[in-house]
Amino acid sequence: MAESLLIAVTDTIIQNLVNEVIVRPWGLKKELEELQVILSTIRAVLLDAEEKQEKNPLIRGWLENLKDAAYDAEDLLDDFNTETMRQGLMTRNQVRPFFTCSNQLVHGVKMGDKLRKIRKRLDKIAEDRHRYALRELERSVDSFVEERRWMQAHPLLSENEIFGREEEKKSLIEVLLESNVEEDVAVIPIVGIGGVGKTTLAQLVFNDARVKTHFELRLWVTVTDDFDIQNISRTMLELLRNKRLESFESDSYNVQSNLEKEIDGKKYLLVLDDVWNEVPELWRSLRRPLLGGARGSKIVVTTRKELVASIMGTGPVFRLEGLNREQSFELFKRYAFESQYMKSINPRLETIGMEIVKDCVGNPLAIKSIGGNMRFKTTESEWLDALNNKSAIIAQQETGILPILKLSYDHLPPHLKPCFAYCSLFPKGYVIDKQTLINLWIAQGFILSSTGHQQLEDVGHEYFRDLVERSLFQDLKEHEMGGVQSCMMHDLIHDLACSVAGTEYTMVDRDLRVSVDKRVRHVSFGGTLNSSWKIPEALLKANAIRTFLLPAQSDGELKKSNCNTILSTYKLLRALDLGDSEVKRVPPSIGKLKHLRYLDLSKNYNIRRLPRSISRLCNLHTLKLSSCYELIELPRDIRNMISLLHLIIDGCCRLTRMPKGLGKLTRLRTLSLFVVGKKFSGLRELNELNNLRGELKIVILENASSSESKDIKYLKAKEYLQSLKLEWSGERSETDDDLMLKCLEPHSNLKQLCVDGFMGVESLPWLSSLTNIVELQLVSCIKFKSLPSLDQLPFLEILCLERLTALEFIKGEVSSNFFPSLKELYLRNCDELMGWLENEELTSIAFTEQYLFPSFPPFPHLSKLMIENCPNLKRMPRYPSLDEQLYLCNTPLEPFLQTLEMTMTTAAPSTSFSSSSSYPLSKLKSLNILRIEESLPEECLQKLTSLQSLRICYIPKLINLPTKGFRNSTYLCTLDIWGCGKLKSLAGVLSNLTALEKLTIENCNKLDLSSDDTTWQGLKSLSSLSITDLPKLSSLPKGIQHLTALKKLAIENCRLLDLSTDDRQWQGLESLSSLSIAELPKLTSLPKGLQHLPVLSSLTIENCKQLDLSSDDMQWQGLKSLYFVSLLRLHHEVSLTRVLQHLANLEELNIIECRLQDPSDAGILSKVSQSLQMLRLYGIPGLESVPDWLQQITTLQKLEISYCPDFKTLPEWIKHLNPVIKRCPQFSG
């Protein structure tokens, strides 16, 4: 490993030594030339040293000494470079230079003395090469050039290809799509050794079109060996909500309860990839909120361990073995030979390749990795060398896949080896952002431009592609605008990275249980650092650290003293990550880190200003400040940060202007936010920033002065921008918005555009020139009365028109090319919108025939349509082929009903609609009708034969549901009925819904569910029922005992309902596992019928004023299957001991905003359950410490105490559990 890093370091030094700009000011040209000769001599023998160091520890020591000296030389050269840049800045800014002639001479003498000492060290090291008989070896430069040409000529190999797993894929899909199942949620394990293809098989199935259609939700979570329930649950919830959770949402109870709500009654597919947990209780705790999914939900688990499969699995186990010999070689050929580009393969290389493959034991990961490297070897001698090395390695080391994978690393070009080793700093299962990774590589000097003209970042993208080609990265995620956004490393590849990184790279836990070598240069932390953390002494001694990363940091807190220590100790830092650490004030000493290239301060919500000294970081190329919500200004002297390439400030919502001189940073490639100031920092600062790419958001555009809107197009030359948002704030009486908009015309390459708050009348005169636009959003443009024709934009897929309050018409052209690519259309809060075309066009006879009886569906590819608060929209093109979602809220039903009236003769026979179905909207899966003035016509659901989800809400005139339509709803799985005040009965509706799995009824004042017994008998599949705010409900519905498949029941805010007396209707609920009761004022004790529920495992009770759980122990008896209880905001005191003594299997207990009763009977304490593992106490008044009787519960593993205003201390006997204490103001720790 050392030799590859040294090659990168020496190449960087040599490149800088010939840089006249660095050399000239110091008068040290001769010394630097001598150093260049020595380094070139040493570099020539590094490849030979690489081969010999494995067997010769003296050579290994020689490399270590060389590495130290080379790093010192690089740091010294960086000092030269930094001081040269600073002198240039002072000259440019007309500041008196610190270095007068005499000062510069003195400084040059000091620098020269340091240089001579390093040169002597390196000279001695160079002489020692003869002692070890090191030869000069050099890989041909032409071979690297040839590889680069090959990379550019051939596309990346598809990860979706599969070899030898066709049967497993077919069988697994059949299991996932199986609908005739007894259990709601089945768990299917995939078991096999590392690299055998478990994850690949799961990915192929996960992305299969049939699977996508079958499941309402799909989630993928990489678990690895840390089975942290909180983190896994949080990841799932963030995936469901498609956003990061705020800190107040991150408490474990909130996460689990919200996760349960998100998946409740929905058919989901969850993949838990790479599971190692062998503790059944942890799996049960994670599983609890997942059990509320609709029948047919599936969880796929990939694991290397049979025990994990036996603990988690409920369905068939898929055991993957290695590929057979033929399959192995077919896969190898796909990666090693250019078979799809060459007509023939060298037979001799093919024979050698078969031998190479033989020892890969059919492992696809090893085959792909070795094959990817062999692709670049063209001679027989190179292939034989690889074959011999493979045999030697396997003979020397333990059997297993890692030694085979090591060959892939050995055959990497030297410039890629440090880049690969650097990835060992990320935790297993970590999603690596591609741009961040490249920026970190650049910060460490790993990337060099071979031509001198190519940008380092572009070279970095090539490096990344090289590693992908060699199968060292996987799980590539595409950016929505194209290109790779992120990747992951297979855990075996991560093991390989850690093994080759040696002591120079270390990922440690917060307690430093892993030893740290004093020569370590790159450090990351695998967990969250909080306020109690102190920098370990061993880490303080390693003061040559160049990288300090916190990739796993989440809601942590780094004390000010630690922050100061990091900055004062690690003066050679080139990459520093302090993100999400609650840093409130960045120390001014940050300006002394003159080598710093990469600085991440994102998600530190309380930072208001950055120290002025940060502008002295003239080497800094990446500054990340995302989501620093309180930041009010950027450094005033930011123009001095001349190396800055990436200024990432999205989410800095309190910025009021940009610093003057920002426009001087012409190398900027990323500027995520630009705030237009009133007095300066206007749009002119953007004019020269033509290297910007990715996303740009320009806000407070009303501050732009009229002088800035004259004949200057600030964005037209920015050809690399892909996404642009233009935002004006607030209403204004007089504006120059129309003039300003002309100056904001973007380049035609733009793919995403959002215009928000524009108050001009002229609607986007340059819009038709954006021929590559994919997504267009027009928001709060309140003076637009019409829009230009949008239907001819060839690549437009998403169109959103929101709060266009004056918009009356949308212009369009009647042609066969009408919205050729549009998939999603959103019309929201357009109060005056009446139709798609202007009045005179609508009355045209020629058009009317074309419009009402078109020869093609006007929206040929529309999949999702949402119309909300458009009360006058009665005319619009039809949408018969809509298949995903139709959402209608406060808008006329005419377009919907007219679409339903279409026949096959009015729809184009060339569309997919006509070929696969007989009726319009017959493929629609989800329909939402809300706040409609008219009632629903009887026939409105009859043709929707594929409907799976239906929501009918707040329709005041609705008395009866359209019963005829429900007769054909054989696929309906989810039905929500809310706020229909005149609805009286569900008779004749529910009995036909044999596939219904989730039913929610809420706020229907006249609905009486208690009288009709036959209503419920047909609901054989119903697994989730929620009843809320039904004032007429006085008892459970009579027919509820027929719901034998019901697993989850929630009852809330039914003021006449008393569950304490009658227990007969509970008796048929033999599958009920989860019960939630809230706001039932007549409930005085637990329902007696709960004792008839044999599998009830989860009970939640909230805000029932009369309920007293301590008055009678009998109410808890018989609930032996309960393992989760949550009690919230109960008015009577809660006795924990009385609860625990009867619940023999209780594992998790949450008490939230309740008063606790002290135990009075010592006999009760002796009977307390010995099964409790998790206890959460939130908002408990008067709680000052942990109750002493908890010592008797030896099974307790986790304790959380939050928002307890009186909590002060933790007793010693509980500290071994590392309790989580949050937001308890009197707790001192």
Automatic annotation (TrEMBL):
The keyword Nucleotide-binding applies. Residues 425-497 form the Disease resistance protein winged helix domain. Coiled coil: none annotated. It holds the Pfam family Rx_N. One of its GO terms (biological process) is response to other organism. InterPro entries: Apaf_helical, LRR_dom_sf, LRR_R13L4/SHOC2-like, NB-ARC, P-loop_NTPase, RX-like_CC, Rx_N, WH-like_DNA-bd_sf. Residues 565-828 form the Disease resistance R13L4/SHOC-2-like LRR domain. Keywords: ATP-binding, Nucleotide-binding, Plant defense, Repeat. Residues 166-340 form the NB-ARC domain. This is NB-ARC domain-containing protein. GO terms for molecular function: ADP binding; ATP binding. Residues 16-89 form the Disease resistance N-terminal domain.
